[in-house]
Protein backbone atom coordinates (compact mmCIF):
# COMPACT_ATOMS: atom_id res chain seq x y z
CA UNK A 1 0.00 0.00 0.00
CA UNK A 2 1.26 3.46 -0.94
CA UNK A 3 0.12 6.44 1.12
CA UNK A 4 0.40 9.76 -0.69
CA UNK A 5 0.84 12.87 1.44
CA UNK A 6 -0.03 16.19 -0.23
CA UNK A 7 0.96 19.07 2.04
CA UNK A 8 2.59 22.48 1.50
CA UNK A 9 4.32 22.28 4.88
CA UNK A 10 7.05 19.92 3.69
CA UNK A 11 8.50 19.37 7.18
CA UNK A 12 5.11 18.21 8.44
CA UNK A 13 4.65 15.99 5.38
CA UNK A 14 8.08 14.39 5.84
CA UNK A 15 7.42 13.86 9.55
CA UNK A 16 4.16 12.02 8.82
CA UNK A 17 5.88 10.08 6.04
CA UNK A 18 8.71 8.94 8.31
CA UNK A 19 6.33 7.77 11.03
CA UNK A 20 4.21 5.85 8.56
CA UNK A 21 7.28 4.20 7.06
CA UNK A 22 8.28 3.01 10.53
CA UNK A 23 4.89 1.27 10.66
CA UNK A 24 5.66 -0.54 7.42
CA UNK A 25 3.84 1.70 4.93
CA UNK A 26 5.27 2.99 1.65
CA UNK A 27 4.80 6.71 1.15
CA UNK A 28 5.20 9.47 -1.40
CA UNK A 29 5.17 13.21 -0.65
CA UNK A 30 4.02 16.15 -2.79
CA UNK A 31 4.00 19.83 -1.84
CA UNK A 32 1.96 20.68 -4.96
CA UNK A 33 -1.53 19.30 -5.59
CA UNK A 34 -1.18 19.75 -9.36
CA UNK A 35 1.91 17.53 -9.45
CA UNK A 36 0.17 14.99 -7.23
CA UNK A 37 -2.82 14.95 -9.56
CA UNK A 38 -0.50 14.17 -12.48
CA UNK A 39 2.13 11.87 -11.02
CA UNK A 40 0.92 10.25 -7.78
CA UNK A 41 0.37 6.48 -7.57
CA UNK A 42 -1.09 6.17 -4.10
CA UNK A 43 -3.72 3.90 -2.65
CA UNK A 44 -4.65 6.26 0.19
CA UNK A 45 -4.33 10.06 0.02
CA UNK A 46 -3.69 12.49 2.87
CA UNK A 47 -4.71 15.83 1.37
CA UNK A 48 -4.09 19.13 3.09
CA UNK A 49 -6.96 21.62 2.83
CA UNK A 50 -4.61 24.59 2.22
CA UNK A 51 -4.87 24.21 -1.56
CA UNK A 52 -7.40 26.09 -3.70
CA UNK A 53 -10.88 24.63 -4.05
CA UNK A 54 -10.53 24.54 -7.84
CA UNK A 55 -7.36 22.39 -7.75
CA UNK A 56 -8.87 20.27 -4.96
CA UNK A 57 -11.95 19.63 -7.10
CA UNK A 58 -9.81 18.51 -10.06
CA UNK A 59 -7.87 16.18 -7.75
CA UNK A 60 -11.06 14.74 -6.22
CA UNK A 61 -12.57 14.03 -9.62
CA UNK A 62 -9.53 12.03 -10.70
CA UNK A 63 -9.14 10.04 -7.48
CA UNK A 64 -12.77 9.70 -6.40
CA UNK A 65 -12.39 5.91 -6.31
CA UNK A 66 -9.57 6.19 -3.74
CA UNK A 67 -9.65 6.78 0.03
CA UNK A 68 -8.96 10.49 0.58
CA UNK A 69 -8.44 11.78 4.13
CA UNK A 70 -8.18 15.52 4.78
CA UNK A 71 -5.41 17.12 6.84
CA UNK A 72 -7.24 19.99 8.54
CA UNK A 73 -5.94 22.93 10.63
CA UNK A 74 -9.38 24.34 11.40
CA UNK A 75 -12.95 23.39 10.55
CA UNK A 76 -14.86 25.47 8.03
CA UNK A 77 -16.99 25.12 4.93
CA UNK A 78 -13.94 25.46 2.69
CA UNK A 79 -11.67 23.10 4.64
CA UNK A 80 -14.16 20.40 5.56
CA UNK A 81 -17.72 20.59 4.23
CA UNK A 82 -16.96 21.19 0.55
CA UNK A 83 -14.10 18.61 0.23
CA UNK A 84 -16.25 15.92 1.88
CA UNK A 85 -19.12 16.78 -0.48
CA UNK A 86 -16.64 16.30 -3.33
CA UNK A 87 -15.71 12.81 -2.15
CA UNK A 88 -13.24 12.94 0.75
CA UNK A 89 -13.92 10.06 3.16
CA UNK A 90 -12.85 11.64 6.46
CA UNK A 91 -10.51 14.14 8.09
CA UNK A 92 -7.86 14.34 10.79
CA UNK A 93 -6.89 17.48 12.68
CA UNK A 94 -3.36 18.88 12.82
CA UNK A 95 -1.15 18.17 14.71
CA UNK A 96 -1.63 14.65 13.40
CA UNK A 97 -1.89 11.66 15.75
CA UNK A 98 -0.23 8.78 13.89
CA UNK A 99 -2.18 6.21 15.91
CA UNK A 100 -5.53 7.74 14.94
CA UNK A 101 -4.35 8.25 11.36
CA UNK A 102 -3.37 4.59 10.97
CA UNK A 103 -6.73 3.44 12.35
CA UNK A 104 -8.54 5.64 9.84
CA UNK A 105 -6.36 4.39 6.98
CA UNK A 106 -7.00 0.75 7.90
CA UNK A 107 -10.72 1.36 8.32
CA UNK A 108 -11.21 2.95 4.92
CA UNK A 109 -8.98 0.45 3.14
CA UNK A 110 -11.09 -2.34 4.60
CA UNK A 111 -14.20 -0.49 3.46
CA UNK A 112 -12.83 -0.17 -0.09
CA UNK A 113 -11.92 -3.86 -0.11
CA UNK A 114 -15.43 -4.85 0.98
CA UNK A 115 -16.98 -2.52 -1.58
CA UNK A 116 -14.86 -4.11 -4.32
CA UNK A 117 -15.76 -7.63 -3.20
CA UNK A 118 -19.45 -6.73 -3.07
CA UNK A 119 -19.33 -5.35 -6.61
CA UNK A 120 -17.48 -8.46 -7.80
CA UNK A 121 -20.01 -10.80 -6.19
CA UNK A 122 -22.93 -8.80 -7.59
CA UNK A 123 -21.46 -8.96 -11.08
CA UNK A 124 -20.84 -12.71 -10.76
CA UNK A 125 -24.36 -13.32 -9.43
CA UNK A 126 -25.87 -11.39 -12.32
CA UNK A 127 -23.80 -13.49 -14.73
CA UNK A 128 -24.82 -16.77 -13.09
CA UNK A 129 -28.50 -15.86 -12.99
CA UNK A 130 -28.84 -14.61 -16.55
CA UNK A 131 -29.42 -18.06 -18.09
CA UNK A 132 -31.42 -19.63 -15.28
CA UNK A 133 -35.17 -20.06 -15.57
CA UNK A 134 -36.42 -19.18 -12.09
CA UNK A 135 -39.65 -17.32 -12.82
CA UNK A 136 -41.89 -20.36 -12.44
CA UNK A 137 -40.84 -20.85 -8.81
CA UNK A 138 -39.58 -17.53 -7.43
CA UNK A 139 -43.03 -16.32 -6.32
CA UNK A 140 -43.49 -19.51 -4.29
CA UNK A 141 -40.49 -18.75 -2.08
CA UNK A 142 -40.90 -17.46 1.48
CA UNK A 143 -39.72 -17.82 5.07
CA UNK A 144 -39.59 -20.21 6.82
CA UNK A 145 -39.58 -22.93 4.16
CA UNK A 146 -38.17 -26.34 3.28
CA UNK A 147 -37.49 -27.13 -0.37
CA UNK A 148 -37.16 -30.76 -1.45
CA UNK A 149 -35.26 -31.01 -4.73
CA UNK A 150 -33.21 -33.18 -7.02
CA UNK A 151 -30.96 -30.26 -7.95
CA UNK A 152 -29.56 -28.20 -5.07
CA UNK A 153 -27.55 -26.01 -7.45
CA UNK A 154 -30.80 -24.76 -8.95
CA UNK A 155 -32.24 -24.01 -5.51
CA UNK A 156 -29.05 -22.16 -4.57
CA UNK A 157 -29.58 -19.84 -7.53
CA UNK A 158 -33.33 -19.62 -6.92
CA UNK A 159 -32.81 -18.39 -3.36
CA UNK A 160 -30.10 -16.01 -4.57
CA UNK A 161 -32.48 -14.58 -7.18
CA UNK A 162 -35.24 -14.28 -4.58
CA UNK A 163 -32.93 -12.39 -2.21
CA UNK A 164 -31.92 -10.06 -5.03
CA UNK A 165 -35.54 -9.44 -6.01
CA UNK A 166 -36.45 -8.61 -2.38
CA UNK A 167 -33.24 -6.56 -1.85
CA UNK A 168 -32.24 -8.61 1.17
CA UNK A 169 -28.99 -10.17 2.34
CA UNK A 170 -29.21 -13.91 3.02
CA UNK A 171 -26.59 -15.82 4.99
CA UNK A 172 -25.60 -19.12 3.34
CA UNK A 173 -24.75 -22.03 5.66
CA UNK A 174 -23.68 -25.46 4.43
CA UNK A 175 -24.84 -28.25 6.73
CA UNK A 176 -22.11 -30.45 5.24
CA UNK A 177 -19.50 -28.57 7.27
CA UNK A 178 -18.64 -29.03 10.94
CA UNK A 179 -19.12 -25.33 11.76
CA UNK A 180 -22.82 -24.96 10.90
CA UNK A 181 -23.86 -24.72 14.57
CA UNK A 182 -21.50 -21.82 15.25
CA UNK A 183 -22.56 -20.05 12.06
CA UNK A 184 -26.21 -20.19 13.11
CA UNK A 185 -25.41 -19.12 16.67
CA UNK A 186 -23.38 -16.08 15.59
CA UNK A 187 -25.71 -15.00 12.77
CA UNK A 188 -27.92 -11.98 13.45
CA UNK A 189 -31.35 -13.27 14.45
CA UNK A 190 -33.01 -10.83 12.07
CA UNK A 191 -30.91 -12.07 9.13
CA UNK A 192 -32.57 -14.65 6.83
CA UNK A 193 -30.66 -17.94 6.53
CA UNK A 194 -30.32 -20.31 3.60
CA UNK A 195 -29.17 -23.78 4.67
CA UNK A 196 -28.15 -26.49 2.22
CA UNK A 197 -27.34 -30.16 2.79
CA UNK A 198 -29.97 -31.23 5.33
CA UNK A 199 -29.63 -34.83 4.17
CA UNK A 200 -26.12 -34.92 5.67
CA UNK A 201 -27.53 -34.69 9.22
CA UNK A 202 -28.82 -37.56 11.32
CA UNK A 203 -32.09 -37.44 13.30
CA UNK A 204 -30.53 -35.99 16.45
CA UNK A 205 -28.65 -33.34 14.49
CA UNK A 206 -31.78 -32.41 12.54
CA UNK A 207 -33.77 -31.93 15.72
CA UNK A 208 -30.97 -29.79 17.12
CA UNK A 209 -30.93 -27.75 13.91
CA UNK A 210 -34.65 -27.00 14.00
CA UNK A 211 -34.43 -26.08 17.69
CA UNK A 212 -31.78 -23.51 16.79
CA UNK A 213 -33.93 -22.20 13.92
CA UNK A 214 -37.03 -21.67 16.06
CA UNK A 215 -38.39 -18.17 15.46
CA UNK A 216 -35.93 -17.40 12.66
CA UNK A 217 -36.37 -16.75 8.95
CA UNK A 218 -34.85 -19.58 6.94
CA UNK A 219 -34.98 -21.69 3.79
CA UNK A 220 -33.58 -25.23 3.79
CA UNK A 221 -32.87 -27.31 0.70
CA UNK A 222 -32.69 -31.09 0.86
CA UNK A 223 -32.57 -34.15 -1.39
CA UNK A 224 -34.74 -36.11 1.05
CA UNK A 225 -38.17 -35.54 2.60
CA UNK A 226 -38.46 -33.76 5.95
CA UNK A 227 -41.18 -34.32 8.53
CA UNK A 228 -41.30 -30.88 10.15
CA UNK A 229 -44.17 -28.38 10.66
CA UNK A 230 -42.93 -25.85 8.11
CA UNK A 231 -44.20 -25.03 4.65
CA UNK A 232 -42.58 -27.51 2.29
CA UNK A 233 -42.48 -27.44 -1.49
CA UNK A 234 -40.93 -29.90 -3.91
CA UNK A 235 -39.08 -28.71 -6.98
CA UNK A 236 -37.94 -31.36 -9.46
CA UNK A 237 -35.64 -29.83 -12.03
CA UNK A 238 -34.86 -31.19 -15.46
CA UNK A 239 -31.19 -30.59 -16.28
CA UNK A 240 -32.14 -28.61 -19.39
CA UNK A 241 -34.14 -26.11 -17.32
CA UNK A 242 -31.14 -25.06 -15.26
CA UNK A 243 -28.60 -23.64 -17.66
CA UNK A 244 -28.76 -23.21 -21.39
CA UNK A 245 -26.34 -25.63 -23.03
CA UNK A 246 -25.41 -26.99 -19.62
CA UNK A 247 -22.61 -29.59 -19.58
CA UNK A 248 -21.36 -30.91 -16.26
CA UNK A 249 -17.76 -31.93 -15.76
CA UNK A 250 -17.20 -35.62 -15.07
CA UNK A 251 -16.32 -34.94 -11.43
CA UNK A 252 -19.31 -32.58 -11.14
CA UNK A 253 -21.63 -35.26 -12.46
CA UNK A 254 -20.12 -37.86 -10.11
CA UNK A 255 -20.59 -35.52 -7.14
CA UNK A 256 -24.23 -34.90 -8.10
CA UNK A 257 -24.83 -38.67 -8.27
CA UNK A 258 -23.18 -39.25 -4.88
CA UNK A 259 -25.24 -36.50 -3.24
CA UNK A 260 -28.54 -37.69 -4.70
CA UNK A 261 -28.03 -41.43 -4.10
CA UNK A 262 -25.87 -41.62 -0.98
CA UNK A 263 -28.81 -42.39 1.34
CA UNK A 264 -30.47 -44.75 -1.09
CA UNK A 265 -27.43 -46.83 -2.12
CA UNK A 266 -24.20 -47.97 -0.54
CA UNK A 267 -20.91 -46.47 -1.70
CA UNK A 268 -20.11 -49.82 -3.33
CA UNK A 269 -23.28 -49.64 -5.44
CA UNK A 270 -22.64 -45.98 -6.30
CA UNK A 271 -19.06 -46.69 -7.33
CA UNK A 272 -20.25 -49.50 -9.59
CA UNK A 273 -22.83 -47.20 -11.23
CA UNK A 274 -20.16 -44.56 -11.85
CA UNK A 275 -17.44 -47.00 -12.89
CA UNK A 276 -15.31 -45.68 -9.99
CA UNK A 277 -13.47 -47.48 -7.27
CA UNK A 278 -14.83 -47.10 -3.74
CA UNK A 279 -11.60 -45.27 -2.90
CA UNK A 280 -12.37 -42.72 -5.62
CA UNK A 281 -15.84 -42.10 -4.18
CA UNK A 282 -14.34 -41.68 -0.70
CA UNK A 283 -11.82 -39.21 -2.14
CA UNK A 284 -14.62 -37.10 -3.65
CA UNK A 285 -16.43 -37.09 -0.31
CA UNK A 286 -13.33 -35.86 1.49
CA UNK A 287 -12.56 -33.20 -1.11
CA UNK A 288 -16.05 -31.72 -0.95
CA UNK A 289 -16.55 -32.32 2.81
CA UNK A 290 -19.51 -34.57 2.04
CA UNK A 291 -19.65 -36.63 5.21
CA UNK A 292 -21.93 -39.62 5.49
CA UNK A 293 -20.77 -42.29 7.94
CA UNK A 294 -23.22 -45.02 8.92
CA UNK A 295 -25.69 -42.78 10.74
CA UNK A 296 -29.44 -43.28 10.58
CA UNK A 297 -31.16 -40.66 8.47
CA UNK A 298 -34.52 -39.03 9.12
Describe the protein's architecture and organization:
The protein is an alpha/beta fold and 298 residues long. Helices cover 46% and strands 16% of the residues. Strand 4, helix 4 and strand 5 form a beta-alpha-beta unit. Helix 2 packs parallel to helix 3 and helix 3 packs parallel to helix 4.
**Distance separating the two termini:** 53 Å
- Classify the secondary structure makeup into a structural class: alpha/beta
Radius of gyration: 27 Å
Number of strands: 10
Q: What share of residues is helical?
A: 40-55%
Compact overview of the structure:
The protein is an alpha/beta fold. The chain has 12 helices and 10 strands. The longest helix is centred in the middle third of the chain and has 32 residues, at 98-129.
List keywords for this structure.
alpha/beta; 5-stranded parallel β-sheet; 12 helices
Blueprint (SSEs and pairs):
Blueprint: E1 2-6, H1 10-22, E2 26-30, H2 33-39, E3 44-48, H3 53-62, E4 67-72, H4 77-86, E5 90-93, H5 98-129, H6 135-138, E6 145-149, H7 152-165, E7 171-174, H8 180-186, E8 193-196, H9 203-212, E9 218-222, E10 232-235, H10 250-261, H11 267-274, H12 278-287
Parallel strand pairs: 1-2, 1-3, 3-4, 4-5, 6-9, 6-10, 7-8, 8-9
Amino acid sequence: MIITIIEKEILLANDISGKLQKQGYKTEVFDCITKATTFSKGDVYLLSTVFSMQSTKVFMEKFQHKSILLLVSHKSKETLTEPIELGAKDYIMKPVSIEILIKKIEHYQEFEKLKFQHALHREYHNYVLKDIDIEQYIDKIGFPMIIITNNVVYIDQLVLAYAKKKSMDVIFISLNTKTWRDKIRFANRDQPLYLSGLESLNIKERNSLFDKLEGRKFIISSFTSVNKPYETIEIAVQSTSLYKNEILTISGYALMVIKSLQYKMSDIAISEKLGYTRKKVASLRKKHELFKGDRLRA
